[in-house]
Amino acid sequence: MKTFIRLTICLLTLSVYAQKDLEKELDTIVTVEQAEKFLVNKKSRKNKILIFNEEKHKTKLATKLLSTSVGSTEVVKSEFTTTHYKVIDKTDERHYRISYIFFDGNALDATQIVEYKNEIFKSYEEGISFDDLAKRYSMDKNAKRGGDSGWLKEGSLPVEVEEQAFNLDNKLDTLYTIRVPESNGFYIVLKTERIKKIKEIKVLKVIAK
């Protein structure tokens, strides 16, 4: 019994020292590059860099981390593990949100695309929701969401699409068409939101036993 108690105390002591060593190591990490190097050295699938966006992530943890400054750490303890979340980067970038219907010009000929485009414009003017039209016509994987892109930042979609998404002259709830020559893609776009700056953070997640 005494041996068991000594062993338990020894393990607890080692765990405490390990935690302190980890905390000291995390204190030295102040950039994304250092966090990436840390992950390479640790070689654990559980440790990773997470991205939290104030529009997409509404959990208590995400909300708390988004309200803190770069360098802040949140520690979450469970029965078997202690998880450290350290904010290593914070940005406040322009985002856009649109809904779109996509046609692959490599799978459909131009005549068919024009025919579909005319049908869509006519149906939209007659009051058919864009959501329903996207589900019916779009060849993109987001068709099931009614063509909604969600909030995106620059570099997420082809440059031709983003030029129009960021164009302040394009009015909300108005359809416009875009052709992407490089991929032979064709888009019918509905601007659903005004340009908005959205806070986003990168968080180093480290799990310790």
UniProtKB/TrEMBL annotation:
Key words of the record: Isomerase, Rotamase
InterPro entries linked: PPIase_dom_sf (IPR046357), PPIase_PpiC (IPR000297)
A molecular function GO annotation: isomerase activity
Pfam (any one): Rotamase
SUPFAM superfamilies per record: FKBP-like
Keyword match DNA-binding: no
PpiC domain boundaries: 77-193
Protein's UniProt name: Peptidylprolyl isomerase
